[in-house]
Amino acid sequence: GGAPGGEVRGGFAPGDQVVLLLPTAGPFLGVSDAVRDGVRAAAGVDDAQSRPKLVTLDSGTPQRVTAILGQALEGGATHVIGPIEKPAVDALAASGGLKVPTLALNEGTSAGTPAANLYQFALSPETDAIEVANKAKALGFTRALMLYPDDGAGKRRAEAFRGHWDRLGGTLAGEATFKPGAPAAPVQA
Q: Can you give the pLDDT at residue 10?
């Protein structure tokens, strides 16, 4: 597939440099590798003249991420993808205006207006819960029973579902939690 005429283009100009600001260790390493592979594959569709230069930098700690981004800009970065960690996204959001478009691969936690040129992209668990409520409503359901993990992420998902389901006019018939990793117990209706 592709664009009309069969040509797929990345939209970069000759000389563009994309910096991947990603962790090189820790719990997000698998995500970093997948992002890096995807960006390399996407860059490969452009002809050699318009293919951007790709540079990967360790996003470091939240306290250092703005300094690392500054180094990337000094090195000629025209676009930045990353960071992934929420505290690092928060640090960039609070940094003032960014000189180049920066696509953070997570959402920050602050409610304020983020820095200019900072775009935040995340498929959060809360978004998933809202989509489940939308799908259930679209299928004609009006009552729901919610079972969710008894941890921070589970509670955030449950709160998002509960609030959105209520706004959609649905009724929550009941809810219960379970301990992640605990042996399964029978569910009684």
A: 62
User: If you search the block for the tokens 């970065």, which residue do you land on?
Assistant: 77
Chain-centroid distance of CA 189 in Å reads 36
Q: Copy the structure tokens of residue 105.
A: 């691969």
* Residue 27 or residue 48, greater confidence: 27
> In the structure encoding, which two tokens stand for residue 2, read together?
């592709």
- The Cα 108–Cα 87 span in angstroms is 7
Burial class of residue 44 in the structure, from the number of CB atoms within 10 Å of its CB (0-12 exposed, 13-18 middle, 19+ buried) = exposed
Structure confidence at residue 70 as a pLDDT band (50, 70, 90): very high
Residue 73, Cβ neighbours under 10 Å: how many? 15
- Find residue 81's DSSP bridge partners: 20, 103
**Global confidence as pTM:** 0.64
**147, β-bridge pairs:** 176
Question: In this structure, which amino acid lies at residue 132?
Answer: V
Q: Element (H or E) spanning 133, and its range? A: helix 125-138
Q: Which residues pair with 60 in a beta bridge?
A: none
Average pLDDT over residues 26-40: 89
Strand partners, 19: 55, 80
- Give residue for tokens 């000094």: 74
DSSP 51: P
